[in-house]
Amino acid sequence: MVEQGYVDADDVDDCVRGTIKNKKAQVTDSLFGTMTAHQIRLIKDCWEHIEYLEKSVARLEEEIHAHLQPYRQEYELLQTVPGISEITAAALIAEIGIDMNPFPTADHLASWAGVAPGNHESAGKKKVQKA
């Protein structure tokens, strides 16, 4: 445990979790030596904030997965397309849905999604699109 502001490698071992565990040596090196009570408080505040954010992200991911349950088959099918990750598949279902009837062709869907190529150039001059 931290006593009088001194941090050693065992303290770091007991505290680091998640992806930062891979950088344990860097964390130990950066904390070696003495720290003031103020510095310790700031680090603790940051650590608690990181833990809060990690819990929030985990809770949101659970909620997203719960919302995707009715669309599990479509969600998994989308991921078979090269370049479509879990996150992209979830975003596609959230934004577009699974009913493609409003889009008569793939070009209509691409245009609606804003990924259709456009040529805004005439006589070598590029036209600026106004939002």
From TrEMBL:
Coiled coil: none annotated. Pfam families: Transposase_20. InterPro entries: Transpos_IS110 (IPR047650), Transposase_20 (IPR003346). Residues 76-127 form the Transposase IS116/IS110/IS902 C-terminal domain. This is IS110 family transposase. It comes from Paenibacillus agricola.
